[in-house]
């Protein structure tokens, strides 16, 4: 019998390729005394040369694939390598204390890292500490003859296997070569999974043990539709999956015929199907998949991709690029949502027991007002280039919205008095992703221009189940009546006040949820670009009156998710 592993299918697709295992390398060594110090110094300088060559190569690849800003990180690494003070100190330890090169390097590097890390309020020095740590690891690996993996330089077709991938690791993957990725941890709505969907890289997360079950170079099959990994495929399985891969590609091709169609139900109700994006580069994928607009631009990636706060000008350029590319289609830009699983190396956030319940999103913006104002200025200046909508994340109370809105008004007034052009029809709305806001939606609806329901968080907070933790992922239940009732109340509250309600959580592209959401009366569905066309096809087959009856029954008669799923299947013949 073939070994199989299962996990959470996080980004659709099928891939067959050899494994590229990304594991922490074993860099253990023994600290020994040496007599031939010249030999140790020669080993050190050979290792430094090798590290230099490797970093130059990575820098070159990063420059071509990712651009100048990302490549600059490696310039900082090269600077460390040519720092005479750093190398002289290591040579001195070898000479005077007669340690082997590995021990001398580690001693000096720990000393510098400790010194820089102690300068807590200096983000620049913190960055230097991390550069020294990275570079020392590379020299140590060269001394030990260990090869370090680097995902951004992959240049042949592979399936990347790792314990976890950070959102920035994911952003660096080249989809021409990385055919899929599989991780031990994570859930469908962890941010690396979300990025995988925008990059259209098939992904399975939360397998628990994939890294212990495969070896580098081993051929595996990833079925990221069913969430299955076949570890030692037989010839028949390879043939079967090659066919499935072809069928999948044909299915995607057929859907492409809907790219220029509008999104209309069977009975003629027009819906907006928008895309979620993380960077201006994602707009291409959104348009290629026929998006009617951008329903969520997660601007925090702009902050995460940099080594310092992006300037107002950098932000202005990014927002302008998205607005112009989308022409007169709506673009909902969410102000920075940092915290939770998204970190900024240069913004010192406190260690928290529960980061998802902590200092995050609008809570940071309302506390660090200058940073917030810079973002709003950039947005307002860009507003003349398209149809901008601004959205605040993680709003829990009316006061938070009022405070954010008044800062927005203040920034707008200042810009106008400086003679700056600003659009006068910018809608300002909020994400509904905290149960308190959902339950208070009837009151919030009086003041906001729109709602966008963030089910990724709304579900985790309603079910008290961490969205990153695969042990409790069974509780991540988008079809649970509690979630559907909240969503229904939010949508009805918006409509009562003549406002629109969208959804930008992953549930909006879930094919079982879509009939229910259509019945509830959701106006805008925003999802990973790769889900748009199949949702457009599904909606074109649904009648809104029948779906309303389905949604009413689901929210009044069902006691759990499986009853809801049975009911949906009764109404939809697939
Ligand atoms: C959400 O919470 O549903 C959402 C869209 O925001 P994020 O996934 O970035 O937290
Ligand atoms: Mg959220």
Characterize the structure shown.
The protein has helices at 37-66, 68-81, 84-97, 101-118, 123-144, 167-171, 191-199, 210-213, 235-255, 283-288, 300-304, 312-325, 362-367, 369-382, 398-417, 435-439, 441-444, 455-463, 481-496, 513-520, 529-540, 544-557, 561-571, and strands spanning 4-6, 8-11, 14-22, 158-162, 178-183, 203-205, 219-223, 228-230, 272-277, 294-298, 330-334, 387-392, 427-432, 450-453, 500-503, 524-527. The relative contact order is 0.10. Helix 3 crosses helix 4 (101-118), helix 4 packs antiparallel against helix 5 and helix 19 crosses helix 22. It is globular, with a radius of gyration of 26 Å. It is of the alpha/beta class and 574 residues long. It contains 23 helices and 16 strands. The strands form 2 sheets. Strands 1-8-7-3-4-5-6-2 form an 8-stranded mixed sheet. The protein has 3 domains: 3-23 and 151-254, 3-Layer(bba) Sandwich (Glucose Oxidase, domain 1), CATH 3.50.30.10; 37-144, Enzyme I, Chain A, domain 2 (Orthogonal Bundle); 260-572, Alpha-Beta Barrel (TIM Barrel). Bound molecules: phosphoenolpyruvate and magnesium ion. Magnesium ion binds at residues 433, 454, 456-457. Phosphoenolpyruvate is lined by residues 189, 296, 298, 337, 433, 454-457, 504-505. It catalyses: L-histidyl-[protein] + phosphoenolpyruvate = N(pros)-phospho-L-histidyl-[protein] + pyruvate.
């Amino acid at each position: 019998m073939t070994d199989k592993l299962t996990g959470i299918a996080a980004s659709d697709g099928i891939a067959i390729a050899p494994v590229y295992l990304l594991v922490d390398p074993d860099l253990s060594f023994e600290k020994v005394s040496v007599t031939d110090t010249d030999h140790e110094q020669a080993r050190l300088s050979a290792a430094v040369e090798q590290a230099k060559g490797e970093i130059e190569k990575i820098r070159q690849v990063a420059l071509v694939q990712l651009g100048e800003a990302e490549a600059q990180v490696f310039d900082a690494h090269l600077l460390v390598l040519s720092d005479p003070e750093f190398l002289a100190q290591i040579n001195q330890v070898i000479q005077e204390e007669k340690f082997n090169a590995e021990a001398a390097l580690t001693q000096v590097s720990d000393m510098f890292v400790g010194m820089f890390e102690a300068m807590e309020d200096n983000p620049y020095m913190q960055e230097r500490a991390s550069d020294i740590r990275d570079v020392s690891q590379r020299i140590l690996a060269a001394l030990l003859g260990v090869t370090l993996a680097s995902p951004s330089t992959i240049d042949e077709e592979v399936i990347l296997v790792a314990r976890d991938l950070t959102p920035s690791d994911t952003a660096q993957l080249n989809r021409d070569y990385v055919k899929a990725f599989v991780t031990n941890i994570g859930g469908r709505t962890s941010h690396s999974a979300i990025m995988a969907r925008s990059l259209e890289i098939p992904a399975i997360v939360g397998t628990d043990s994939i890294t212990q079950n495969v070896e580098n170079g081993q051929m595996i099959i990833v079925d990221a539709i069913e969430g299955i990994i076949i570890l030692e495929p037989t010839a028949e399985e390879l043939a079967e999956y090659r066919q499935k891969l072809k069928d999948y590609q044909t299915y995607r091709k057929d859907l492409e015929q809907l790219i220029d169609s509008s999104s209309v139900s069977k009975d003629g109700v027009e819906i907006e199907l928008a895309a979620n994006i993380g960077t201006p580069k994602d707009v291409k994928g959104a348009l290629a998949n026929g998006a009617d607009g951008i329903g969520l631009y997660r601007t925090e990636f702009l902050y995460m991709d940099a080594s310092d706060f992006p300037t107002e000008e950098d932000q202005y350029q990014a927002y302008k690029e998205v607005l112009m590319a989308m022409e007169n289609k709506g673009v909902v830009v969410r102000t920075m949502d940092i915290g939770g699983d998204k970190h900024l190396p240069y913004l010192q956030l406190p260690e928290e027991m529960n980061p998802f319940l902590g200092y995050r999103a609008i809570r940071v913006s309302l506390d660090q007002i200058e940073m917030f104002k810079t973002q709003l200025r950039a947005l307002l200046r860009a507003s003349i280039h398209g149809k901008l909508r601004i959205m605040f994340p993680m709003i829990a109370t009316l006061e938070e919205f009022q405070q954010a809105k008044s800062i927005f008004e203040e920034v707008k007034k200042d810009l106008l008095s400086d003679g700056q052009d600003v659009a006068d029809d910018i809608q300002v709305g909020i994400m509904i992703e905290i149960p308190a806001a959902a339950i208070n939606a009837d009151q919030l609806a009086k003041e906001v221009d729109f709602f966008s329901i963030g089910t990724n968080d709304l579900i985790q907070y309603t079910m008290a189940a961490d969205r990153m933790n695969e042990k409790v992922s069974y509780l991540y239940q988008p079809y649970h009546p509690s979630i559907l009732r909240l969503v229904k109340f939010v949508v009805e509250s918006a409509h009562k006040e003549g406002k629109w309600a969208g959804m930008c959580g992953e549930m909006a592209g879930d094919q079982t949820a879509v009939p229910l959401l259509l019945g509830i009366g959701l106006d805008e569905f925003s999802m990973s670009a790769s889900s748009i066309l199949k949702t457009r096809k599904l909606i074109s087959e649904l009648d809104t009156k029948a779906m309303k009856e389905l949604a009413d029954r689901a929210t009044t008669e069902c006691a759990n998710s499986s009853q809801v799923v049975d009911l949906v299947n009764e109404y939809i013949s697939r």
